[in-house]
Backbone:
């Protein structure tokens, strides 16, 4: 691991960012609490609060606030946009857990397990609609088109994953399309919307979009790495979930590309045909090790974090710029 | 049945409306086909087309076009708004069929049966996002707030139904809230948005909103009536679906209100506890007959259709106004 990344990991940059943005994040959290209420259907705040209060890192709303701050925004509407991206993210998680039939999220039982799939689908729809109400309020049409495009791209990425993830023909190019859709689209929309609401010049807006895009890609690659190499205690997920769910991700895609005939048959059985047996996860891990694909996946994540930092380089130096730069290192530093 | 309703049923007013709006509806259908495509994920148009091409009545997009025509709109953007409401409606149907575990819709197997629940959830999300992209394009903030509010109200109505529909304490007031949310909100948003995009005066916009609201309520009451009294061939649904799904609707709510102790125990067992036996549907139908609640439900539907017509009465006479008036009669005339 590069020295700077190690140092960044020690200071936990997303906490530094959270501290710098604490006042505004409090306002965002109040807005979220206010808007996830429902006069008529008490099931809605129950389900939403279960997920929202579990306390994710609130990375996406922080990216909106950070971008707006970087561009010296003085108005109130970045708060609405920050709440918007958190609602879109939460709606996506509720639906993802139904689609993946997950039992755990953020170290707690999922809503589909505590209530039912119906509640997760419908409360997700409600939060999605609330997100759109919120994003309309600033009255900025360019922001509206950024965020509604992102919502479509996210859904498209999820559907693409559904059809491509169990197909061994899925290559790194398709993988990039999937994660750019399902993850990076909301990161880049967050940073771009923050810049646009602040009326930033096009070059700055583009730089912040590029930063969000690369950061989101790095973030998802790291997630997919940790699914095979992570510490269940730290990640709140079990090792091998993606393997069991037959979801092709970068470490396996790279291993499939280097597989001999016997290894190929193994992947075909486990991922495409879904006939998994006791000991298969161990075999899979040994194949990833044989071809060094976890190492290669880490390199790929670092490359995207570097691209994120490079995107910010042309902007004037500032506290916020340096925090965002550190954040890119930190995302990769989750790999130990 | 009143004479006018009978006459209207014979001329099929929604077909007359469809004829009057044929050119614009063709443009709307082209826009729908274009926007339901996906460059990356072919599963999306497969699933969407299965439902959209099955040919619903396209009542909601026609209401947008009719309202815009009534207000002499000359621009192109009513087409986007018409496609928007059809996408929201289709997304809702995809999610409803997952929630209700339905096997049939519009006389065909449902998407969740042909593909899987995952595809229905995610393609529904995609169509929902596409709806928001479309509604942003006209650049009219008032229209955006009408349609995004409607989306939230729909989801809220669906969640309310989820928690209230199996509870015998649910009365006509809660029922009205549910159907106003899950059905009438999109009808009233359609007519209101058509008026607003045309720049209609407030009184006209309000009249068209009130018309859509009352029409949607009448429409849903008739749907709920037909679930007990309909002809499966004509409705494409089976008699008693709501009973089997333990969904309290107006005919049963009225019967519960009039039930003696033994009848109450019957409803409690079938709806609240879900312990249904052979012959229960027949018993349920005989209880509805004993208390005359199907007749009372029909009366209620007629009352809402009359309100819809009354809402239009202050507007100047025109071909379009008289077609909308006939449409209100037709909605109730589906009850024979």
Residues:
């Amino acid at each position: 691991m590069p020295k700077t990344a190690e140092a960044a990991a020690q200071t936990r940059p997303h906490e530094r960012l959270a501290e710098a943005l604490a006042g505004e994040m409090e306002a965002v959290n109040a807005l979220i609490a206010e808007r996830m209420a429902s006069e008529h259907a008490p099931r809605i705040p129950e389900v939403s609060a279960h997920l929202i209060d579990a306390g994710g890192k609130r990375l996406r709303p922080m990216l909106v606030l950070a971008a707006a701050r970087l561009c010296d925004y003085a108005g109130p509407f970045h708060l609405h946009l920050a709440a918007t991206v958190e609602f879109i993210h939460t709606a996506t998680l509720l639906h993802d857990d139904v689609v993946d039939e997950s039992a755990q999220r953020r170290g707690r039982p999922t809503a589909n397990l505590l209530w039912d799939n119906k509640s997760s689908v419908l409360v997700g729809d409600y939060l999605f609609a609330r997100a759109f109400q919120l994003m309309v309020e600033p009255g900025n049409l360019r922001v509206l088109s950024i965020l509604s495009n992102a919502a479509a791209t996210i859904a498209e990425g999820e559907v693409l994953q559904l059809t491509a993830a169990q197909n061994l023909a899925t290559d790194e190019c398709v993988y990039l399309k999937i994660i750019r859709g399902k993850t990076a689209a909301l990161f880049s929309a967050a940073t771009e919307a923050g810049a646009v609401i602040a009326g930033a010049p096009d070059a700055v807006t583009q730089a912040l979009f590029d930063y969000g895009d690369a950061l989101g890609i790095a973030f998802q690659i790291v997630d997919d790495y940790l699914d095979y190499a992570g510490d269940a205690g730290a990640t709140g997920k079990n090792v091998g979930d993606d393997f069991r769910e037959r979801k092709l991700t970068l470490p396996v895609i790279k291993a499939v590309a280097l597989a001999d005939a016997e290894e190929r048959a193994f992947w075909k059985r486990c991922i495409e045909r879904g006939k998994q047996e006791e000991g298969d996860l161990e075999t899979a891990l040994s194949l990833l090790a044989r071809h060094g694909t976890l190492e290669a996946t880490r390199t790929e994540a670092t490359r995207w974090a570097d691209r994120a930092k490079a995107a910010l380089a042309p902007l004037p130096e500032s506290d916020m710029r340096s925090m965002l730069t550190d954040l890119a290192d930190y995302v990769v530093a989750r790999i130990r």
Notes: DSSP finds 18 helices and two strands in chain A.
